[in-house]
Amino acid sequence: MSTKVALVTGASSGIGAAAARKLHSLGYTVYGAARRVERMAELADNGVHVLSMDVTDAASMAAGIETVIAESGRIDVLVNNAGYGAHGAVEDVPMAQARAQFEVNVFGAAALTQLVLPHMRAQRSGTIINISSIGGKIYLPLGGWYHSTKYALEGLSDCLRVETRPFGINVVVIEPGSIRTEWGAIAAENLRGSSAGSAYSHQADAIAKQLARSSEPGTRLASDPSVIADTIARAVSARRPKTRYAVGAGAKPAILLRKVLSDRAFDAVLRLGINAASR
Ligand SMILES: NC(=O)c1ccc[n+]([C@@H]2O[C@H](COP(=O)([O-])OP(=O)(O)OC[C@H]3O[C@@H](n4cnc5c(N)ncnc54)[C@H](OP(=O)(O)O)[C@@H]3O)[C@@H](O)[C@H]2O)c1
Prior knowledge:
Blueprint: E1 5-9, H1 14-25, E2 29-34, H2 41-45, E3 49-52, H3 58-72, E4 77-80, H4 95-123, E5 126-131, H5 144-164, E6 169-176, H6 183-195, H7 201-213, H8 226-237, E7 244-247, H9 251-260, H10 263-278
Parallel strand pairs: 1-2, 1-4, 2-3, 4-5, 5-6, 6-7
Helix pairs in contact: 1-8, 3-4, 4-5, 6-7, 7-10
Bound molecules: NADP nicotinamide-adenine-dinucleotide phosphate.
């Protein structure tokens, strides 16, 4: 059989870059996609094909898939990883920014899924990996728009998994815990941009500090992105992958806590955390 082909979105940074490297090391023909093509130069030097793609732009996604099929003739793995946190109080985040958050984290992933499915159905095989978050299972205040995209991705993935199973296609959700990438710094910056100086500024300060910590080089509060890349490798190599993998710092305890505590009890734990962080 010809080499297996994978497309990874958000390959210009963090988890996507690590995933592209890992799949390439496993022998896949890998396409890395992002807007900042210059940030993928090292991947390109190492044999990853680089695509300029904005997951909010239908034409750029269609062109990307056309390139993959024209050059490689198939697509075996789609990793929907591109994403960011449009943090801020639900009241403060302008609706245009809330919609943009859904465009990237949900509709971008969904549109790419629609584009690859005809090819995967024709092959009668394929794996779609959606990078959700523990934030698709638990919530933090001032992350309402982000969490609602990840909750949406979880539901979309469940329906998709059942729909596509008759065609031999696997759908896998990965729920990273805290991972050392640019994500935390970007979410903190967005949070400050939306809610610093608003009625929510006290919570905003504390939460922005916590978010930014996961991006600090060498922090032990967050895992290396290779932890997620290794999980992706495990999922694509398994004959029958798990439907969900919760991995990385804090992922399993956070999800367990959410499962066993009532909503009110979980709210109280969050409030304790915010109060401690704002001291
Ligand atoms: N880091 C964490 O703690 C953590 C935890 C749970 C889940 N996650 C999820 O993991 C995924 C990857 O995040 P990361 O931690 O690796 O963050 P990151 O280092 O900030 O990388 C985000 C990637 O998404 C891409 N992206 C953003 N907007 C895009 C758009 N409109 N079109 C195409 N690409 C776009 C960025 O590329 P360009 O800007 O170059 O386009 C970048 O490559 C996200 O879905 C995130 O929600 C992260």
